[in-house]
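S1.2 Input.
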Amino acid sequence: MDDWHRLSTEVRPRLHAQYHTHFGELERELQVTALRSAELFRRVELLSIKVSRGEVLTEQIINLINQVVDSEYARFAMRIREAFDLDVEQRERAATSRQADTHNGELVNMYRTLAKQLHPDSVRDASADSIAIWHRVQQAYAAKNVSQMKSLLSMMGAEDVLRSEATEWDLERWQLEVERLETRLRVEHRKLRKLRSEEPFTMEHVIDDEQWQIRHRRELEQAIASKLHEIRENTSRYAELTGGSVPPGTDLVKTKDEQSFEEDFLKNTYFGQR
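S1.3 Output.
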C-alpha cells in the first residue's frame, strides 16, 4: 500500500509534469489529430454501411450519421480539452467534479466505517500503527482514491475478524488464514508490477536523457504525420460517398497550397531536425 501510494501521489505527478515540459505541445497535436482521424473513420464507416445496404445517402441521413458520431466522440473531446487547454487548477476542479459524481456516496460510506474504527476520538490508547492508518484514510479520502479506500477497508475488516474470531481458531484455521493472506499479497504484488510496467513509470529512468528525448520527439512527429495521412484519405472517401460534402470539423480556411506547405515542413524540416 505504501508503494502504491508513493507511485500514485508522488512519482506519477512528477513524471507527468516532466513529460509535459518536454513533449506537451506535440502530445496535444497528436491527441487532437488522432481524435479527428478516429471521428472521420467512424463517419466513413457508417456511411459505407448504408451504401453497402443499397441505401441512398440523402442529406438527412448524412446529417443524422454526423450527429451520432459527434455524440460518440464528445466525451473524448472534453477529455482532451481538460488535458491540454485548461490550467492545472481548472483541470483538477473538473476531474474532482467528475469523480465526485461517480464515487462520492461510496467514498463517504467507506470513510464513515473506517472513522468508527480508527478516529482518535473513537479509539482509546490508539497504537502508532492505527494512527498511521488513520492518516492514510484521510489522504485517500481527500484524493478521492476509491481503490485505496477499499484496500484500507478490506484490511481493517480482516483485523476485525481476527479480533472477534481468532481466539476460537484451531491450527488448520490459522493455516487457511495464512494461505488467504499470502494469496492476497501475491495479487497486490502483481498489481504493482503491472502499474510499474505502464506509462509514465516506464519513462522514469530515461525521461531526462537527451538522446531518448530526441528519439521520442521523432516518434511523436511520425505518429502525427501518420494520422494526418489517415485524415486526408478519409476526407477524400467522405467526399466520394456524400457527393463532395465536407466532413464536420474540417478547416476550410487553409488552401491546398497552405496544407501542402505544412506537410512539406513537417516532413522535411521537423523530421530532418533542421
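S1.4 Remarks. Helices lie at 2-52, 59-84, 88-118, 128-142, 146-165, 171-196, 210-242, 256-270.
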